[in-house]
Amino acid sequence: MSNRTVTPERHIRGEIQGLRAIAVGLVLLFHLWPNAVPGGYVGVDIFFVISGYLITGLLARTAQRDGRISLLDFYARRARRLLPAATLVLMATAAGSLLFLPQSRWEETAQQIAASALYVENWVLAWLSVDYFGAEQTASPVQHYWSLSIDEQFYVLWPLLMTGAIMFARRANVPVRNVFVAILALVFGLSFAASEWSAVYDTTRAYFATQTRMWELALGGLLALSIHRFAAGLALRVVLVATGLAAIAVSTIMFSTRTAFPGHAALLPTVGAGLVIAGGDVRLGAFRGLNVRVLRYIGDRSYSIYLWHWPLAALYTARHEEIRLVAGVGLVALTLLLSEASHRYVEERYRYSQAPREVRPLIYGLASVAACVLASGAMLHAVSTRVQQTLEPDDPRYPGPAALLSGAATPADIPLRPSLAGLRKDLPLVYTNGCHQGQTKADALSCVLGNAESGKIAVVFGDSHAAQWIPALDIIAASQGWKLVSFTKSACPFARVEAKLSGKPYPSCPAWRENAIAAIRALHPLVVFTSQSHYPTEEPVMSSGLRSVWREFTSVGARVVAIQDTPRMPFEPGDCLSNTPDKCLVAIEKARSSSGFQVAAEGIDMVEVVDMTDGICRPAQCEAVVGNIVVWRDRHHLTATYASALAPYLAKRLGFGVSGEQDRSGDGGM
């Protein structure tokens, strides 16, 4: 490729590099100290506007000069610009993950490294319903590739749209720029509408989805196509830049993890970024605005800084509870050091190399992607080797809850079950069978377990804390000759109370609840097992909501069993057991989780409350491992292995013998 084709990228305006420095600084500070910079995540939105502005301007100038857009040339330049550093960081992260991450996180990390290499990480996170701001969720060390994935998808899509626009303009004999503007305006409108809707009705996917973010890139593109018509004096340009910076500052200070985002809230930082770009380079005497050396230096390295900062922070927090000031300063210093090295020896080397043919960078790019996928495959192989150790028949060396409830001895020096590598996959069948409802839909999905041919029906109903009991209830149902039908949905209480996701509306929850209640009543079950997590609802409101639902079932002759919520850990069990296994315990007072069932059930016939806490924790404390079985797969969900081990004890509480024989009279009743 000739120097002429890459020269425009060498001379990006200084104030844009300054704006990049602000954007990456906000993101870095938010990831290290989120409480200090609560809205620092808007730095990503600023990056989107800059990308849309630069790429649209580049393509529009190319189309005006040459009458066409060389897709091969453009994609080769993007590959040469982005892939070398991105590949280096992914490979380094794969190695660092094997060294510093607990085995319980290897598989997820390997899958996300592959997704990042293929630039679909944002869709993987959206599909997994990851909460970007979730305090209890342990983020992948490559989670930040979600924004790079959206950028890359834009780089693939936008030249194709503009090429189509050029062809249309020729046939219709209209100015190409007008067609460009029309397409951008359409993309902006559709994407903004999707963003606004998703921020309210699909909150778990809104943050990562391509369609909810494309309007921010389109905004930058519209600015690139219209800025040539904008002529302003110095005073007005100073006002524009000052207003834009103020908008960014306000969003950084006023926004938080509870802000419905992106939606219309994202207009503040993105329009602010647009105003700064429109204002351009403002200088008043010694004042040089954003075009100062230190900001240009950081802006030039903003891509490498963004790539390196998050894996370093994520790998550090895998071994430490929080990032304190001294550690954070050290992480910033290490980020800058690695960024300087990768910028100088990787980015610059490949970006301005004198490659003779456009196809060569694409070949290198494909090789880079393949290398990352192979690295993630190696991690998955390491995981599968360890997971196979967990798939053994029941063994007396694993007494589990019997160590608490029956005084069974716990042999020493026995490998844990499930293994830490397979901990997060130790799930109830409803997750792997696809019949646990996610956070976006309201259909009353169900699974049939137990004795599928039986006419005696039992139901389990609730959120993921009800789903965690399905392994035990499946065993009980099979022993009693029941068909067990499950109705569960993530983060949705079965009680008729208001539900929110990260403080935001959760409209699919009440709709799903009513659909499930109607489906359950139509089954005329013998018994309905209900359970749910703790929700921050006042006791009278929660009691009323619980009783309202329970009476729906007792009115059709079903008995209701309310299983008290399980205690929860203040740490990730897998991480703790990998790092400090002797400290993986918590006082029972801090672990208990109140569900309000006992109070709500008073005076209601056919409603029984069961508490299995004594089969999970000792009288004074809760431990991550009981009887050589890991109790929790995360902070507050039982492993399927431990839940299964609780089956005979839960059956006994319900009036059945440990072997499964009934202690009460009746034909499969309660």
Description:
With 670 residues, the protein is an alpha/beta fold. The protein has two domains: 3-381, no CATH class; 427-570 and 592-616 and 640-653, Rossmann fold, CATH 3.40.50. 55% of the residues lie in helices and 7% in strands. The protein contains 27 helices and twelve strands. It has helices spanning 3-10, 14-32, 42-66, 71-100, 106-117, 121-127, 145-172, 176-201, 203-206, 214-226, 234-254, 267-279, 293-300, 302-317, 325-351, 359-387, 402-405, 429-432, 464-467, 470-480, 508-523, 539-554, 573-579, 588-591, 597-601, 640-645, 647-653, and strands at residues 447-450, 457-462, 483-488, 500-501, 504-505, 527-531, 559-563, 585-587, 607-610, 621-623, 625-626, 629-630. The strands form four sheets. Strands 1-3-2-6-7-9 form a six-stranded mixed beta sheet. A two-stranded antiparallel sheet has the order 4-5. Strand 6, helix 22 (539-554) and strand 7 form a beta-alpha-beta unit. Helix 4 (71-100) packs antiparallel against helix 7, helix 4 (71-100) runs parallel beside helix 16 (359-387) and helix 6 crosses helix 7 (145-172). The relative contact order is 0.10.
Short description:
The protein has 670 residues and is of the alpha/beta class. The protein is built from 27 helices and twelve strands.
